[in-house]
Design goal:
The structure is a homotrimer of 362-residue chains. Chain A has 362 residues and is mainly beta. Chain A has 3 helices and 19 strands.
């Protein structure tokens, strides 16, 4: 249940799996005098995955059909599309479109979150998906999963971009240490409730040379030129007896605050977006199905950067919240509720946001 | 054949089914001096459905990929996306996006129609799909399917709406009586040709508080405010020895004929759409595969309502037609042809419309 | 491997197959002072195919989800959607949306190409997909596959067109002779490396009466009226011991060079596109997996036709290139690289284009 259907050839050289996921969400926001609500089928996902020719050649396709899943001006539902070659433990190879292996919080897949949605610091500062090549190992040198690394080289302009650029590449290196051995650090919560403490600590750096988008691999496209972005991330996951802690810091800086281009005497000025942020969140499973959670999330802008980012930080840069999760089949069938108190600079009206969600995989 | 492929776990706790449907249509219209034709792949549907964790937790996903299936400004192909909990006979629960349980004619699924397309009265006055919660029973109190009810509470702004509103809910109650017991009233035609008369009579009422769309849950979005709509429906299905009769009346009234908003001294005036209509249609299966059909369909506008609706009624408000269906595998593989004489007020040029269609489920 | 999953009923009356394909591509172009590159998930395809009710009733659905696969203004991913009736060897019937059976190079499916992409002459002058009816035989009179024919009658306005036209039909007739019997002329390369020479020679003619699109079934929609296009094609495929040769000539002429319409005293003038072209390409399989290829490709415009076509021919009308293919699982899993020298009239700066591609079916 929740894993879809998989067909395998007897010799292991071929398999084909298909899976669907559904997310329903209601959001209520109270802000000043206004009360608004929104109820929607947030997304439907279709996953096709398996291996072909050899157990070491794996493929993954994910299509996303929710109204908000589409990029402006594109009708393509392609989220993930990649092929892995996993013959060598220390040198796994992946080509295609997939999550940039940068920070922990963004690379945990959406179905495995312990809140209704991601953190504001992560939504602003992550590197999302890109098209490129990754080499990696989750158990470098075979030291009982102690060390892992990921190195990514890609276009740097994000997913489903169909234009030729004179743009430069995005380079990313991420290192993770797991002092107590393997753990499920690719999902939030400690659903295993194991009696043994588990820890993963990661750091990552990235350089996106000549990108055409305001948030590096996401956001509006620049028309006045390209910018270079430097990214840093550090994160930690700790799990023990149903308790889980996830913390992360993110930092992004552009090489210039404003892009300028003069065409026929008209000057176009476009701001870049520099900022940093962090969050800490924790959860505790009261029993095998019920979890209580809490999160503190903070975003900062840096200097004379994009006024839209400055405004976002000023009005919604601080978010404090808690939630309740009911796991009927782990992350594959769950009901989640959370509440956030969203505020910013003093004197700015705060928001109250409550959300209720059903997330189910079939 | 026609039901797709279903994979089941031995313990009944899980199943996964996938199915596709294809509709090809040619339409010829003669109107005054003009003859136009249109041949197209009208739609392709992909359905994923099954149960998860228990035989009582069911899920249904339907994606629609035809060019006309998309809402303006949206690339999302999501039609249906819901989860049912059917543990209690008298209190089935459904959450997600699905047909609003209002009138009979609209809630019969598209593949099970006995004409090429729906009635003009129903196309104008139905409540289509919405996101919400339904409680229902198809056999209330266990009286041999005599009574059924459906109660729906939803957002009221229709499918795939991704904006926060201060909008109020849509509330719907529908009651059905089946004096001679169970029948297949969820499809048109009497393909069973059973020797026993069968009847279903239904009534429904709905109130859509503060909706943002001109036809209540469908149509253009208002920019000048919201309207409240009251809806009523009554319908009957009768089947006997291959003969089937379907009749329905629909009524919709807005709380105001015009929405007005003044922004910076400019007044925006937007009309709402009030009207009513009815149709009667019948079919007779000459043998197990061939059916002849006839329909009379009439739409009225109410008072000083949307001029576009008044004009539609004036030019195409009366439709008289007949058709022939060849069921090669029931509704799952059929060829349908029909002809309609479309007219309105006296003095308005009539239209002649002929259609030919292949509808096949795989 | 590479054929997806197929479920069959024991009695042969039903089958359902599903398959996915992925194409990743990097393109580098050097032109004058500029170097641009583009890396993308070029396409993801989902195929559903099988038979229903009888082994002779077959259905095929292909959805294409790549960013460039969508028509302007349409969100529909439908490429193919058709039903075949293959009961009679000399009179197979197909209805729906599919490749117009005109020239060889365009009707070879995309996964089975021996270069990264199609020829410029073919991209300009082909008839792509349309909605209609085809009758055909691949073995007319049962003469060991010596003769085949295809006759097509369709709307002539191309795929996924959702408007009523007063447009006339597209009529196509294609004849093929295979003097040495059956061969895999529906794919490029000679992957069989058979010891026996094989040859297929085809000719085709088409007349598209009153089409609304600039390239007959593809391209921009006219607003000033409709044009009539005449099309001719001739092609040959030869294969022997891993060597393959494919050559084709194409010709298209509009009945008028310019469409004119006067609305309220304003004259709209729209050019039609007339031209011809040809290409020759060859490949040789060094061993069962590695192939070297070469191609010469030339496009001409005809007289005072669309200036955009004249400009295309002047700058990119001649293309000379070669490539290397690594077939890990035939056309179902391959890595392809090619290089083209793209030039035109003397004095025009040439382009250098290099491409690398992974094409995999699952």
């Amino acid at each position: 249940p929740g894993k879809g259907v998989v067909v395998k050839a007897a010799d292991g050289r071929y398999s084909f799996g298909i899976r669907a996921r559904l997310q329903l969400r209601s959001t209520y926001v109270h802000f000043g005098d206004s009360d608004t609500s929104e109820t929607q089928v947030r997304t439907i996902r279709l996953n096709v995955a398996g291996n072909v020719l050899s157990p070491d050649i794996k493929y993954t396709i994910q299509l996303a059909f929710g109204g908000n899943d589409f990029d402006t001006g594109s009708s393509s539902p392609i989220f993930d599309a990649y092929v892995d070659y996993t013959r060598f433990r220390d040198l796994n190879i992946r080509v295609g479109q997939f999550f940039v292996p940068f920070d922990r919080a963004r690379t945990i897949r959406e179905f495995a979150l312990q809140f209704v949605d991601r953190q504001i610091a992560v939504r602003e500062l992550n590197l999302d998906r890109d098209v490129g090549v990754m080499i990696s190992s989750s158990n470098l040198f075979g030291l009982s999963d102690l060390l892992s690394y990921q190195f990514f080289l890609g276009g740097g302009d994000g997913r489903n971009r169909f234009t030729a650029y004179s743009a430069g590449p995005l380079t990313v290196l991420r290192l993770t240490v797991r002092p107590f051995g393997a753990l499920d650090d690719d999902q939030e919560s400690d659903l295993t409730r194991a009696d043994k403490p588990r820890l993963a600590v990661g750091v990552a750096g990235a350089y996106n040379y000549r990108t055409s988008r305001a948030q590096s691999t996401i956001g509006t496209a620049f028309t006045a030129g390209t910018a270079n972005y430097t990214h840093l991330a550090a994160d930690a996951v700790f799990k023990y007896r149903g308790f889980s802690l996830l913390a992360e810091g993110l930092w992004r800086k552009a090489n210039t605050d404003v892009l300028e281009r003069t065409v026929n005497g008209t000057v176009t000025r476009e701001p870049t977006r520099s900022g940093h942020g962090y969050f800490v969140q924790a959860g505790y499973l009261v029993n095998s199905e019920l979890e209580v959670t809490a999160r503190w999330d903070k975003l900062f802008s840096r200097g004379p950067t994009d006024p839209a980012l400055v405004q976002l930080v000023r009005t919604q840069g601080k978010q404090l919240g808690g939630g309740l999760n009911l796991y009927l089949n782990g992350h594959a069938f769950k009901v989640q509720g959370d509440y956030f108190y969203i505020f910013g600079s003093s004197g700015v009206e705060p928001r109250h946001q409550a959300r209720l969600q059903l997330d189910a995989s079939f």
